[in-house]
Design goal:
Elements lengths: L35 H35 L7 H15 L2 H10 L5 H35 L1 H6 L2 H25 E6 L2 E6 L3 H45 L6 H30 L6 H29 L1
Antiparallel strand pairs: 1-2
Helix pairs in contact: 1-2, 1-3, 1-9, 2-4, 2-9, 4-6, 4-7, 4-8, 7-8, 8-9
């Protein structure tokens, strides 16, 4: 998720509770003095995000190349792995824009940049979690109804993958249409056209569609999978002395848990500010929290290729 810095000047044109997700808050004025601590924090953030971007782009590009080249014909999950790697790759491509904006404290990419980068955040986030939900349901079907799973064609899986992107695009579309570039003095801000209440409702909806809803579905699937494995163990172990291999299930669950661990702090921080009507911390600690939550979201896309390699 893109950064959401806090106002650092009393002239910032925002009321308490104004939109503040994904770079929606005002930037410090270019003429505003910065303390050494701020400069160190910004420089550290820039270096860290740049390193994550390089490692993550290389890892996800490698995953895409290997999966499409060597696993297309044999791995039933290759369509979903391609989906995940593509979503991570697209998300990481926004790193240079985020770093440039934070280092210069100014938005340089125009109205089109606002619309593309802000909606890209929500698009890739939903595409990832929807794909993980599909993978979890596929693994459940492989255990509960293995013959039905074998009959599923790659065309069927591709249509499901396409459906995840279309649904993700539908959820990101309101931000793409509402966001606009606003000039305030010498500063350029990306702000949605709707008011604070509508923005809060929109963020709450996205929290439900990216965290709560998929979380409930995946949790139910894994509870039923655990029961199925337990029953299989009781039935087969006395004869075969072997347990069912849950390796793929554990890897998928690991990717899901990593997603939640990296994105949940960001969402909680954003919603806390929305429902409190003001930031819960002073500006400087709030910026540090923004830095940390942002690094977590990009860290997810950086670490994922290693898990995808194990999965394939």
């Amino acid at each position: 998720m893109a950064l959401s810095p806090e106002p650092t000047s009393s002239t910032a044109p925002e009321s308490p509770g104004a939109p503040n997700a994904s770079l929606n808050s005002s930037w410090a004025s270019p003429t505003e003095s910065s303390s050494l601590e701020d400069l160190v924090a910004t420089g550290t953030l820039g270096v860290l995000l740049s390193a994550m971007g390089v490692v993550g782009v290389a890892g996800n590009a490698y995953t895409l190349a290997v999966t499409c080249r060597f696993l297309r014909a044999s791995a039933p999950l290759y369509v979903y792995v391609v989906n995940l790697a593509l979503a991570d790759l697209l998300y990481l491509l926004s790193v240079p824009f985020i770093v440039a904006t934070y280092v210069t404290r100014e938005w340089h990419f125009g109205d089109v940049g606002c619309r593309l980068l802000f909606s890209l955040d929500f698009l890739t986030m939903h595409a990832s979690i929807f794909t993980l939900t599909l993978m979890s349901s596929e693994r459940y079907a492989a255990v509960a109804r293995p013959l039905d799973t074998v009959r599923r064609s790659k065309r069927y899986r591709k249509l499901l993958a396409l459906g995840t992107w279309l649904l993700a695009l539908l959820l990101a579309l309101p931000m793409m249409l509402a966001i606009r570039l606003v000039r305030s003095g010498r500063k350029s801000l990306c702000l949605p056209a709707w008011g604070p209440r509508a923005h809060r409702a929109y963020l709450t909806l996205l929290f439900g569609t990216s965290i709560v809803g998929p979380g409930v579905v995946i949790a139910l699937l894994y509870v039923r999978l655990a029961r199925a494995y337990w029953l299989a163990q009781r039935a087969s172990f006395p004869q075969t002395r072997r347990l069912p291999n849950p390796r793929v299930l554990c890897l998928i669950l690991g990717i899901v848990l990593l997603f939640w661990a990296c994105f949940l702090p960001f969402w909680l921080w954003q919603l806390l500010a929305q429902y409190r009507g003001a930031q819960p911390l002073p500006p400087r600690p709030a910026r540090i929290v923004n830095y940390l939550t942002t690094c977590l979201t990009y860290g997810n896309s950086c670490v994922n290729p290693f898990l995808y390699t194990l999965l394939t």
